[in-house]
Design a protein that fits this description.
Length: 163
């Protein structure tokens, strides 16, 4: 296998491995779970907690939108570098490093938001929230959704890019 084919084979593998960092963040139900009446009731979310969760979501969402755009641009740059002729391994490595840095910043922001969610909840609420998240993942797996067969749920498949 020549160097160009090897590089093109390694790029998708690198993208897959980069997504595995998500496996280390404790799972909670997706979206604005505190607005779901059943979840809010089961956890005993107060009006003050709801207000704090709303505010921190807005605060972090604005930042994460920009960070996600940077990740998307990095993925496009990486694909373009890998597809370019003649093969420039240094350019591909630099594009990969830039994409990884962007992903790290996005994951760092997600972590900070999750930490603030944790600080907003009591220990009991946090534990119940994680249990709800686990039950949701198990149900999705049984229904053939996320987590069913193939790669573990935390390992995202690389997206196909359209220019």
């Amino acid at each position: 296998m020549n160097g160009h084919k090897l590089t093109l084979a390694l790029v998708p593998a690198g993208l897959l491995l980069a997504g595995s960092a998500l496996a280390q963040v404790p799972g909670v139900p997706p979206g604005r779970w505190w607005e779901r009446p059943r979840v809010a009731e089961e956890l005993g979310i107060t009006a003050e907690q709801r207000s704090k969760l709303d505010a921190l979501t807005v605060e972090h969402a604005k930042v994460m939108i920009d960070l996600k755009a940077t990740v998307d641009k990095g993925e496009i740059d990486l694909k373009a570098a890998a597809d370019a002729e003649p093969l420039d391994a240094a350019r591909i490595r630099a594009a990969f490093a830039a994409m990884q840095q962007a992903r790290g910043r996005l994951e760092g922001e997600r972590f900070e938001m999750l930490l603030k969610v944790r600080q907003t909840l009591t220990a009991g609420q946090w534990q119940r929230l994680r249990e709800l998240g686990q039950r949701l993942r198990e149900r999705r797996a049984l229904e053939g959704g996320e987590g069913s067969g193939g790669a573990p749920p935390a390992v995202r498949q690389p997206r196909k890019f359209q220019y």
